[in-house]
TrEMBL record:
This is Olfactory receptor. Belongs to the G-protein coupled receptor 1 family. Keywords: Cell membrane, Disulfide bond, G-protein coupled receptor, Glycoprotein, Membrane, Olfaction, Receptor, Sensory transduction, Transducer, Transmembrane, Transmembrane helix. GO terms for molecular function: G protein-coupled receptor activity; odorant binding; olfactory receptor activity. It is a multi-pass membrane protein. Residues 1-229 form the G-protein coupled receptors family 1 profile domain. InterPro entries: GPCR1_Superfamily_Member (IPR052921), GPCR_Rhodpsn (IPR000276), GPCR_Rhodpsn_7TM (IPR017452), Olfact_rcpt (IPR000725). SUPFAM superfamilies: Family A G protein-coupled receptor-like. The chain crosses the membrane at residues 39-62, 82-102, 134-156. It is found in: Cell membrane.
């Protein structure tokens, strides 16, 4: 479990590194801007950060499932194999997604968001983007929906067992799973809003609200996760 918490923390640093330098530079500049290369690089790092976050959260849910359901601890070999997979697959699929974006000619150069994301850049293209849109759904399903399914399945099984267990067992399960559920819920709400913002017109929503919700996945999890796990897991202190 602690290996996964460490990976979650390192991923928060990784995502913050992709976001903060540019946003701080733009705050100090009279004309906020970013080069196309810099924008595409930021897209790759931010999207892989989001994919890693969900993948690691899915692994943590699976780990809780194995521990509470079968009283077994994941072996180091299996842990390494799973970590290699959850890092390799998002890199590969997001790299393909980025290549599809790079090939598009751009007819505009103004982004409505404070950082670069793939769909905002695709919208600036004056050519057919149906391939990008279709592949975007594939990315969403594989890097978001599948991990969410794993997490929900794990907790449904855990809940079913807890309902038949003693009060002490339920208390232990609650203490073990609460930090993970808080992290998962916070990130899922922000990620769901991002999908809605990409696929639907939310221009009637106040710009400040859209901006704050769009940067929530980059700001809140790296700050909230250490507090959640530090407060709930006494062994960390």
């Amino acid at each position: 479990m602690y290996i996964f918490i460490c990976n979650l923390s390192l991923n928060g640093v990784y995502g913050s590194t992709a976001f903060y330098p540019n946003i701080l530079a733009n705050l100090l500049s009279e004309t906020p801007s970013i080069s196309r290369t810099g924008c595409l690089t930021q897209i790759f790092f931010i999207f892989t950060y989001g994919s890693f976050e969900y993948s690691v959260l899915a692994l943590m849910g699976y780990d809780r499932y194995c521990t509470l359901m079968y009283s077994s601890i994941m072996t180091p070999c299996k842990m390494i194999q799973l970590l290699v997979f959850v890092y390799t697959y998002p890199i590969c699929i997001n790299l393909i997604h980025l290549i599809l974006t790079i090939r598009l000619p751009l007819c505009g150069f103004i982004l409505e968001k404070v950082y670069c994301d793939n769909w905002s850049v695709v919208r600036l293209s004056c050519s057919d983007v149906s391939v990008n849109s279709a592949f975007g759904y594939v990315v969403t399903v594989t890097v978001m929906c599948l991990p969410v399914t794993v997490i929900i399945y794990s907790y449904v099984r855990i809940l079913a067992v807890c309902l038949r267990s003693t009060k002490e067992a339920r208390a232990k399960a609650l203490q073990t799973c609460t930090p993970h559920l808080l992290s998962f819920t916070n990130y899922s709400i922000a990620a769901f809003f991002e999908i809605l913002q990409h696929r639907f017109d939310l221009s009637n929503m106040p710009h400040v609200v859209r901006t704050m919700m769009s940067i929530d996945p980059l700001l809140v999890p790296p700050l909230l996760n250490p507090i959640i796990y530090g407060a709930k897991l006494q062994e960390i202190r």
